[in-house]
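Q: Can I see a sequence and its folded structure?
A: Here is a first one.
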Amino acid sequence: MKRRTLDIAFSVGGALFAVLLLILGLVLSDQGDFASSYVHDELLEQKISFPAEYNGGETEVEGSGCLTEYAGTPLDSGAKAECYANYYINTHLHHSAEGAGYAGETYSSMGSIIGGLKADLTAAQESGDQAAIDEAQAAVDSANGLRDTMFKGETLRGLLLTTYGFSIFGDRADTAALVCYLAAALLFLLSVAGIAHAFTSKHAKDVVVKVAHEG
């Protein structure tokens, strides 16, 4: 096999592989665009916006600088969804728990606490002490209200973080598409160089692989 034939074979193979990489890049770009537009459109439909100002201590939490960056803007991207979930909703949930006297508690852990408060209410009702009944009932109502707030807040936070995770896949698809485009461009240039070398090199007719014939 002549050097020219070998150069052409490798160049054509490289060009075909470059085409495959280009197609893969287009598919990944399409998926990345879909993820980004889907997240953007779905979040806008919720009509959630960051407050223009914060007065609940949200910006005092470490890592909450994004709240200031996004202040007054609509929640319309995965990055904003993560910021809103982790530094706005989460901070409000912690403050609500602290204000009600249940610092550090969550929706799940409040279940057993409410069970204990209901037991206290039953005991008060059995004693017939109206003051104790009123106090126990108020405690149950307060805990139930907090748990309901936690349920709504933690549900929204979970949905926003899921949306953020989906947007990350879109970002990675865009990055992978860029890598495919660069690799395809490089292979195409190498293929063109290989073809040019095959027809211009003074060694193009040299035999690099001898094929044995049985006679």
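Q: Show me another, different protein.
A: A second, unrelated one:
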Amino acid sequence: MSDPTLQQMARHDRVRRGGARRGPLLGVAMAVVLASGAGWWGYNAWSGDGPERDPDVVAATERLQSFLDAWAAGEAAKAGALSDSPRTAESLLTSVMTNLKPTGAKLTAGDGKKDDQGKVVVPYTARFTVPAVGEFRYESEAALTGKAGKWVVEFGSPMVHPRLVPGKTLALKAVAKRAAVLDANGDDLQAASLRGSVDEQGKGTFGLEARYDKQLRGGGGAATSEVVIADRQSGEAEASLTKSSAKPGTPVRTTIDPKVQGAAAAAMEGLEVNAALIALEPSTGNVLAVSSRPAGGINRALAGRYPPGSTFKVVTAAAMLKAGMKPSDVVACPKFTRVDGQRFENQNQFTLPAGSTFKDSFAKSCNTMFVENRAKAGGSALHDMAEAFGIGGEWDVGDVTYDGSVPVTTSDNDLAASTIGQARVQASPLVMASIAATVKEGTFKQPVLVPGAVKKKHEATARLDPSVTGALREMMRATVTYGAGSALTGIPGEPHAKTGTAEFGEEKPPRTHAWMIGYQGDSDLAWCVMLEDGGSGGADAGPVAARFLKNLT
């Protein structure tokens, strides 16, 4: 990276006093951190002269103060015009101010004196406020030649700073290096929507980079950078002009599995809607992959709030199974049904033939069957079963999450809509992936993303009966083998799934989010796909889930 100065304009860097040197005026390379800032300012603090002062000294000092004021204001060309080497001065001053980016600058001329050659030598004090450093202060001096009214600054590197020589500049060097966000293997996390980003000041702007900014930045309250003398061509720091005791940042290690994360990211490529894909390890609750689009802002996979639609039928079915229903029970699945005048219907108004079972209705995602059997999930039964899946608690995951809400129903219509994941039922993709993981594991294991940040895991207030989870596994497998999850047919790993098409908004026909949740029967993997305003669970979310699982084979 080159120093953004006037390289073509400058070909030498002269030192008037003590001879002249020549050297390239090239840029500061990547070895030196270029800090950012808000601007520069300065003011003329020269206090005038007494009645006995030599008018030449007064005029020369005024000219130097004008030079210093222009420099402090970031007007390098204006300052250079007051010197005997305008282009050289402009180049070096631009380099210094671009590299340091001070948020404040005050350069003040002192009392000058004539030397035996007729030159006026004027000391000055420089004070810069530099981001990540604090105040940078030093003393230097300048020689001016000429006569009253025509004085010019003899420009050279030592005039800018007494330790500068031609070919060198002032720059910033990061002392407290920002630490990285890591995956489970200890490598840099390759998940942009989860990791987040860092701005020009080195501050995290969203994602884990923002949440753990203080830990990653380090410093411990001390200056995190030093002002250094650096080579303008290579950018190498050669000497420090300030000192910092700052400590480097501490890495943030996540549970993300790079292989699973890569499979998730690839599955999301090409989608034109906002979407989320999240994967968990059921035996531990560890989060294996998080992909949210678009990157930036809320992470939809972790903290999005949506009606889960028919994917919530896993919880409803659990409540019904606990109440005594069996997968083999024969049930009706009409095209539509009514509750106190409110119409509930199946997607595309399908129906199932006589003799169909509870398992068939689950696999085919029959809304009307669940609505008509709502009494078996009535009272607080649905709410209580949701708690057995960990929903409604405060999850300490290591990042911002939405942990779901299943209120106790207040009316028959509220209950009817809640059984199919509508009404006031809300969940994030994280919650729905955890539901699938709970069926696989047999008990709720709170998801964890950043183990080192978790203080206390949430524990479910109720336990799932093994007969209930066993029946749910049978029904979720049927969803793939002959139900709405046919997009996963033929995929290795014995996938189990549940689809969902969740209505939202007031439009007619209603807009819908597309969902699919599931787990692999032969491996420690559960997952959720959600397409925001994305259509149908089986037709639209299903193919994304299929790509994800295929990417893992």
